[in-house]
Specification:
The structure is a homodimer. The longest helix of chain A is centred in the middle third of the chain and has 27 residues, at 134-160. Chain A has helices spanning 33-42, 126-132, 134-160, 163-180, 195-202, 206-218, 234-241; strands at residues 9-10, 45-49, 54-56, 64-70, 73-78, 84-90, 95-96, 109-112, 116-122, 184-185, 188-190, 222-225, 228-231. By secondary structure, the first copy, chain A, is α+β, with helices and mostly antiparallel strands. Chain A has a 5-stranded antiparallel sheet. In chain A, strands 3-8-5-6 form a 4-stranded antiparallel sheet. In chain A, strands 10-11-13-12 form a 4-stranded antiparallel sheet. The first copy, chain A, is globular, with a radius of gyration of 19 Å. In chain A, 36% of the residues lie in helices and 22% in strands. The interface between A and B is large, with 53 and 53 residues. The structure holds a DNA duplex.
Chain lengths: 254, 254
DNA sequence: CGCAGTTTTGAGACTGATCAATGCCTGTGG
DNA sequence: CCACAGGCATTGATCAGTCTCAAAACTGCG
């Protein structure tokens, strides 16, 4: 009982829900006391995934649901010959694993980009949430709907934007999401990505991604050095990407 | 009161929920009596959209939710210069408009491909559904999660498949969805699409789509004539597209 | 210092885009 | 019954964007 090992999926809650770092943020909506209480009891563990590790694997049968507490990750799928497509990036507040409730097997994988902390919820207790906390249930739907909006945007990008526009779009997207979570310092963010990740998210080759990024750098729109992204000309990026800035009411999370 | 006009959005329910054509299908799960009763009262109208008409427009503030009862449509987004991307196709049983519950404005449009019949639900009563019918609430989440799975697949296609593979994938996807709904006769389906629609769904130009389709026809994989699609070599298509056939439990719908 | 992973660069090949016609149906009006 | 218009499908020629291959230059780290 004593001397609990420092395992990846320990029984110890390093982060009590009452002091959830997400709740402190302005972007996220607060909980009613009884909701907080329920979520606290729903959380059965905290998972620490090391940078580069696979959190979920396509084909797995998953019995847990996760909320990202801290860190960056990405969802991806691969074709049988190894071609990989990053579907989107996973940031704090994102809910992972809902798909497993409608598909027998996981249809995508999730990998940690940085060290990632996740709250773990047992899938079989999801029913309790729906039964006793309709408000939280709506929040889950809200999160799913938001995912869909992001995927739609991405689809438009892959289908109809040129490489340059696509990269500008992705950069803005990442920057704005990071900023929303307070991860940006002025016009600068630390992105734990390699250009290979960008390429796989953009549906481009590594080489062409590099050349495109170089062009964006040379025209003084952005600056990318060793994982630090700096937005030099926000408006020009927005124009280039034809970025639509969508207003959102405060986000829920679980 | 008599002589009710044959309006697009009449107050008359041509299709009572008790005899919903979807319920008769094997793919869809049944309702408990009280659920059926609730949904029946939730449905406030039936909308008939003529082929080619716009059902929902990006930027609109939408106050209704819809279930497709019959017909084909598609969701799409456009860039400010007119480039259009079809996000996915909408078939009977699909639920439309959930996104509006998290975004102030619609982030995509929906257009009818054939004449389409939709059940109309008021958005503001969604809360009642969550509060009183947790089972239906889970169904909604299920539907949203399934959407996400489809979008993920699509994203992989646009990002990493070649034109040929992409087309094979889309054709299989459409065929299997139609078949699931009993819209296929043997290896043949009537698809109310032009090649322009295919192109916009695939992220390709019209010309290249045509040439690619021609190649698929010449190699005896499919046959496409005036809106009729015929699968000539299913296995070869599956292999070409690297199509993953995912098993699904019986679908819910609202 | 040397390695492994990443970024950068150049050259050439190829996929898919664009432009420009032409052909093919189907419905309409004379 | 024919002429014609409008929407779609088809084709060829050329062009541009992106990919692949190959190699070199960097970077952080043990």
């Amino acid at each position: 009982m004593n001397n609990i090992p420092h395992s990846t999926q320990g029984a110890v809650f390093q982060t009590p829900c009452a002091h959830c770092p997400l709740r402190a943020m302005q972007t996220f909506r607060g909980f009613a006391p009884e909701e907080l209480d329920f979520v606290r009891r729903l959380k059965i563990a905290e998972l620490h995934a090391v940078a580069g590790s696979t959190v979920l694997l396509e084909g797995d049968t998953v019995t847990h649901l996760y909320t990202v507490l801290a860190g960056w990750g990405f969802r991806y799928k691969t074709l049988s010959d190894g071609r990989r497509q990053i579907l989107n990036f996973v940031l704090p507040g994102d809910f992972i694993g809902l798909q497993s409730s409608c598909m027998a097997e996981m249809r995508h994988s999730v990998e940690a980009l940085s060290d990632v902390t996740l709250c773990v919820f047992p899938r079989e207790r999801l029913w309790e949430l729906y039964r006793d906390h309709p408000h939280l249930a709506m929040d889950l739907t809200w999160l799913a709907a938001r995912q869909e909006v992001l995927l739609d945007d991405n689809l438009l990008s892959l289908g109809r934007r040129t490489a340059r526009e696509r990269l500008a779009y992705l950069i803005l997207h990442l920057y704005l999401r990071a900023k929303e979570l307070g991860l940006a310092v002025g016009d600068e963010v630390a992105l734990p990505l390699t250009q290979q990740h960008l390429a796989d998210a953009l549906g481009l080759s590594l080489v062409h991604t590099n050349k495109t990024l170089k062009r964006l750098t040379r025209s003084e729109l952005v600056h990318w050095r060793g994982g630090r992204l700096r937005i030099l000309d926000f408006d020009a990026l927005v124009a280039l990407a034809r970025y639509e800035i969508g207003e959102q009411p405060p986000r829920p999370f679980i």
